[in-house]
# Entry
Amino acid sequence: MSDERIPRDFYARDGEEQAAFLSQTWCQNCMAADLGMTNPEEYAIGDRVYITGSCVQCGQPVTTELIEGDDDGYYEDEAP
Ligand SMILES: [Zn+2]
# Structure
């Protein structure tokens, strides 16, 4: 398994997805969820996909790990 970081195009996602990912964050510096992030960058390592950006509140880096299946680029956040 390679740990090479492969850039992906966050802006290829549809607007609702972008808005959701930008608002659904966890900041370890603020110790708070959903503060939001700016300057998102999406990348994959192995079969995991991450979006990293800057916390809206404190400017520290925040990373969101996406849970998705194959590389179909679609992620649905469904409540159980
Ligand atoms: Zn923060």
